[in-house]
Every structure is written in structure tokens, then in C-alpha cells.
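Morning run. Coffee first, then this:
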Amino acid sequence: MRVCYLACDVDLGMGHGGATHVREVAENLAALGHDVHVVARCRASGSNPAYHSSSRRVPRQARVLNWMWLRRELRNLRPDVVIERYYNFGGEGALLKRETAVPFVLEVNSPMIDYRGSPKEWLDRLLLFRPLERYRNWIGECADLIVTPLPQILPPGTDPQKVLRLPWGANTDRFQPDGKKAMIREKLCIPPHAAVALFTGSFRRWHGAETLVRASCDVMQRSGVQLYVMLIGEGPTLGRAMQYASEHAPAGRIISTGRVAYEEMPAYMEAADFAVAPFDTSAHKHLQLGFYWSPLKIFEAMAVGLPVVTIRVPEIVGIVGDGGLYYDEGDCTALTAAITQAASDAGLREAMGRTARERVKAFSWRAHCQALSDRLGLLVSR
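And here it is:
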């Protein structure tokens, strides 16, 4: 079928999770035989033979111009189904549904509702009649199908029969052990037999990089484990984390690689022995609604055969299973103990890594898109 995938707030050329999500869904739907057309804020550099893409950079204040252009595009395309990636004040897919009656799928990866006391909630109250809430609810009501990692982030009263709960995934073809571990370690001056912990992300407060560095320094100071830490990415808390490392860790034991290209990530990840995802949900108020994140870093680490040390929340435990070690969020002593255990027991790491690699097959982008494709087929055939 011909699928129009609206990602009007996404720059496909970026390396963040949102852009990766759109590219992977488009590629995997195309691999299943669908004719996929992606409309994004910016296209990726170069063309992707798997799917078609178009873009139009329009200021948000002039969204009516974007809507006029998009409507012309859709008239020419004549899709069988429209998928919209939800974003604040979006709704292009709902508007198209109203005009054309083409089946409309809403992809919701972040909350459609606000946590109590949020700036948007206060603004909505001041505007009377809650226009922002009413508009978001209307978008959800227009959808024939809503795809989300966590139903709790949808408006109250959403029909559960039209909700497809799907986590994100990993590209299990790209992310797999490929034998480049020694090469990357040599490049980063990491000894062959050292235990290496991996952190990847954009270094926001809620990602917990500083917590990881503090716990790792404790391990280095109090145990005989030859622990190294590899930090991949850039962001606001990286500077503070590295400053702490320079004051408390042996020289060269905590390494910042900076940003790494997506195609090079599997090799860098395989150079590690285990991944750490020390989320701090208290630093991100929207998580009061539930742990709606579906972290690519966890899926991709599992795909290359790495066990994961992370917080104990049902959504993550349901993904990682016996492929990792857990600690209670905020318990730095427990995090230190988990890192020590993972770093000091190679046999345990290998067993958990094999389990992680096997489990992630159920959470691949291919599996994600097969489930989505099955529901799209039901929609179009109605």
C-alpha cells in the first residue's frame, strides 16, 4: 500500500532518536513491500532508495503555508493511509482525514497530556475553555489507530480498541557483534582485558551521566577492578561529568568520544563490555505520567550483545529481562554495586549478553513494523 508518513517536526539528517525512529520505520515498512513517502522538516543528506522523502522548512508561525503545500502534495500522492508523528500543535494528519477520509494513524511517542502544574496546563487554563487540550483530544479522536509505547500518555477516554502498544526497537542487522572490539579499544587507548562500561546519549540531566561517573569513580577507588568508562555523545551535562572525572578518576579511565556517526556506533558499542542507563526520572516531570521512553540506547546495546545496568522500572525490565542488572532509582550505592558486579564477572557478562542479544530480536525495527503493517492492512481493508 502507499503510505504517507508525516514527520513535520523532524530533521531526518540529525542523529537523535526521533530522526532514527522515522528513518527506521520508513525503511522497514518499505522492506515489507509498502510504497513509503516521508514528509519531514528537513531531508537527510543524500537519498535513501528504500523510500521517498520530501521536506519544506516553514516557520511554525506560518504553519498555514505548510498546510497548503502539504494538502497539494497529498492530492498528488493519493495515499492509502497517512501516519502522523505527533508533536505539539501538529495535527496535519487529522486535518487530512477530515478532508479526504483516508485512514489516519497517529504515532505518539511523547505525552499528549500534560503533567499537573506544567506551563502548558497553566496557559491552557488562562486561555479559558482549554483550547490546547481540546485540540489535542480532537487529533486523537480523528485517528483510526494510535501507535504508542505507553497508553498512559494518551488523552483520558481514548478507545483502547484503537491503541497499538509498540516499543521502539533496534536495527539488529546494523547493530550486531562484528569483531572490531580490539580496533576501537586500541584507538581509545583501552587495555584489551579492561572492563569497559558504556554510556550513550545527549547528556541531559535525566540521562544520569553524572551519576554514572560518580559511581564509576567509587568503583575505581574502592575495588581492584580495572574499569574504564566510555561516554559517547554530547550535551549539557558532559562538561560537569568530565570535570568530576578529572578530579576523582585515574587519568584516562573515563573517556569522552564526542559524537559518533550512526553507522560507526555498532563498532564503538562492541568495544564495551556492558552498557549503563542510569535514568533520573525525577529530573523530567513528564515522566510523572509513566515511563514512556523506549530508549534506543538499550535496544542497540542489547543488539550488539551487551548486558545493561539500569533502573528497575516495569517498562525496562519487560524489555531487558535477564539480560541485565537492575538497581532502585536514586540508590547510588546500589548502582555502584551493580557496576562492580558487571565489571568483575566476565562469565556473568557473557551470559547476560547472550540473553540480551536473543531477547532483542522481539524488539527489532523489523518486528515493530511487521506489527504496524498488519494493523495498517486491517485499516485499509475496512
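The chain has a mean pLDDT of 92. Good start to the day.
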